[in-house]
What does this fold into?
Amino acid sequence: MYPTDFRYTKEHEWVKLEGDVATVGITDYAQHELGDVVYVELPAARAKVEAGQAFGTVESVKSVSEIFSPVTGEVTEANGVLADHPETINQDAHGAAWLVRIRTSNAASEIASLMDAAAYEAYIAEQQKEASA
It folds into this structure.
């Protein structure tokens, strides 16, 4: 269910590294927990982001959630489709609904500390187990 070439954060973001550019989004689990997404606020190109720091928000019919950057760098592009079609996050969280692309100089070490798909799935299972206890 979770792409094996992505890395995942405990805050439910995913990141895919291609060269020195990291594409970031929220996971399918996160969009499911949020419910129907109605608004997305993203940084503009050239904005500086820090690993572990919030860079935007996703608003659903249930709540507003901050989005945290898994890497440090400069935003090269924000997904403009989401301004007019935020529901894309509910439809294709791991594909068309990517949020930002970030040029980074230290991605390898930052991404090494994130979970792979198997670890992320185990993390979700543990969270769900704790929530139902």
About this structure: Residues 117-132 form the longest helix (16 residues). The mean pLDDT is 95. The beta strands are 7-8, 13-18, 21-26, 37-41, 48-49, 54-60, 64-68, 73-78, 100-103. The domain at 7-105+112-132 is CATH 2.40.50.100 (OB fold (Dihydrolipoamide Acetyltransferase, E2P)).
